[in-house]
Specification:
The complex is a heterodimer of chains A (377) and B (83).
Chain A lengths: L1 H26 L11 H5 L10 H9 L4 E7 L2 E6 L1 E6 L3 E6 L13 E3 L9 E3 L5 E3 L4 H26 L9 H20 L7 H19 L13 H17 L3 H8 L14 H43 L3 H45 L6 H4 L3
Antiparallel strand pairs in A: 1-2, 3-4, 3-7, 5-6
Chain B lengths: L1 H11 L1 H34 L4 H31 L1
The chains are: A mainly alpha (377), B mainly alpha (83).
Chain lengths: 377, 83
């Protein structure tokens, strides 16, 4: 038992050392003004090195990118180029690899990868025309990997159940089955009620997509390690699904409660519709809050981890010895934060699913569930 | 008057100050909230030790909800500092 814990800690340590190695590289993507902030550069007494910028360092990791940066050795960037898919009204469709941009130094076919300013990291048309960017970016590549992993897990587990449904669970099954049973019996069934089976596939997909991608985000090595669930576009789409499903499956009772809330004094509704306005606003704020909660939690987790790593480089600018001392503390804190993030990864997936099922449950609730509340009015 | 203050704010980097103070207040609020949840959970567990598992699970969920409100504030502060 103890051996296992120590092995786990060791693995986490190694991951973190690897993480810091990879993430230094992320900070140096703009190499037109390549700043060497690694220890070697400072020990070598390189006078030209610019001051280390923790903000850039962190946001290069948090943000999406058109290439998957692995490492920077000297002034050489090692990165995996990703496909760029562009549609422009004047130039039509273009598909090519992002390596053609030479990390933003060269324009290609009239397109340019911005390395500074408001559009930093985005592809823009040289003429300034409108551009639709459908590229496979870092986040999308990570999502495809995550989806492949989820499909593999569930297809393999599913086929075992199909072949032999009565056998005792083994292997991956014994990881998946308790989680699904927990979600069904303790989360989805109590909050939705007797029609819960219709929503099980969506809610389980939601849960496992968020959970597995949260955990993949903690692994620093490609093809994992992108800040996928900390991207507001991804969480927006997930919240949009919940929004659409909630309102499409909403019954008459649900709409009645929104537009003409029972048990509320008439003066709150008639001359100025205060209550209906608040309720209609509530329809939109619920998914909005879901979106921001997941985004903020996962992004904040990544920022904290990166913040501890930047501490090493901030102190390295003062002295090398101090940096070695701080790196020990910083890695120890990082291991702690990562275990916390492992918990957060589960809790956030759980809360997203839990709140989604509560919202759906409110929308499909039959009238007799509300009976005790009506007595007040 | 307001535009002069805003200009002065932009020059002096008051947005950064405001962001930092805001983040501090958000952390304060989250600390109070999570502290109250933890304290009540401890009392509840002490009264009814056999329900410790259920209480702990609910405590973590509520703490995560409080934490995410604080993180909303942090995101707003981040926007104030960066934008």
């Amino acid at each position: 038992m103890h051996g296992k814990i120590w092995k786990g800690l060791l693995v986490a340590m190694i991951l973190f050392i690897a993480n810091s190695g990879f993430t230094i590289a992320f900070s140096q993507e703009e190499h037109a003004t390549a700043t060497e902030v690694s220890d070697e550069a400072h020990q070598g007494g390189e006078e030209t090195a610019e001051a280390f910028n923790p903000g850039d360092f962190i946001f290069n990791h948090i943000n999406d990118a058109h290439e998957w940066h692995l490492a920077t050795i000297g002034h050489k960037h090692i990165s995996i180029p990703l496909p760029v898919i562009l549609y422009s009204k004047t130039k039509g469709f273009h598909v090519f690899m992002s390596g053609k941009f030479k990390h933003g130094q060269a324009a290609y076919k009239g397109f340019r990868l911005e390395t500074s300013g408001n559009n930093k990291g985005n592809i823009v048309d040289v003429d300034g025309a409108f551009l639709l960017d459908l590229s496979i970016t870092k986040n999308i590549a990570a999502m495809i990997f995550g989806l492949g992993l989820i499909l593999w897990i569930f297809l393999s587990v599913g086929s075992v159940y199909r072949k032999n449904p009565v056998r005792a669970p083994s292997g991956l099954q014994s990881w998946i089955e308790p989680v699904i049973i927990f979600l069904r019996d303790d989360v989805i069934k109590p909050s939705i009620g007797h029609k819960y089976e219709r929503y099980m596939p969506y809610l389980l997909t939601l849960f496992f997509f968020i959970w597995i991608n949260n955990m993949l985000g903690l692994i620093p090595i490609p093809p994992a390690g992108a800040n996928l669930t900390g991207n507001i576009a991804v969480t927006m789409v997930l919240a949009l699904f919940t929004f659409v499903i909630t309102n499409v499956s909403g019954n008459g009772n649900y709409w009645k409660h929104i537009l003409n809330t029972p048990g509320v004094p008439a003066w709150l509704k008639l001359p100025i519709p205060i209550m209906p306005l608040v309720e209609v606003l509530g329809v939109f704020t619920k998914p909005l809050v879901l979106m921001i909660r997941l985004f903020a939690n996962i992004t904040a987790g990544h920022i904290v981890v990166m913040g501890f790593i930047t501490l090493i480089y901030i102190f390295a600018e003062m002295s090398a010895g101090l940096a070695y001392g701080v790196s020990l503390i910083s890695i120890a804190f990082n291991v702690f934060i990562t275990f916390l993030e492992l918990l957060v990864a589960f809790i956030q997936a759980f809360i997203f699913t839990f709140l989604s099922s509560i919202y759906i449950g409110l929308a499909v609730a039959e009238h007799h569930h509300e009976a005790p509340q009506d007595e007040h009015g | 008057m307001l535009s002069i203050i805003l200009q002065a704010a932009a020059v002096a980097g008051v947005a950064k100050l405001g962001g930092a103070i805001g983040a501090g207040i958000a952390a304060l609020g989250a600390g109070i909230g999570i502290g109250r949840i933890g304290g009540s959970a401890m009392e509840a567990i002490a009264r009814q030790p056999e329900a410790a598992g259920d209480i702990r699970a609910n405590m973590i969920i509520i703490a995560a909800l409080v934490e995410s409100v604080a993180l909303f504030a942090v995101i707003v502060c981040l926007l104030a500092v960066l934008a």
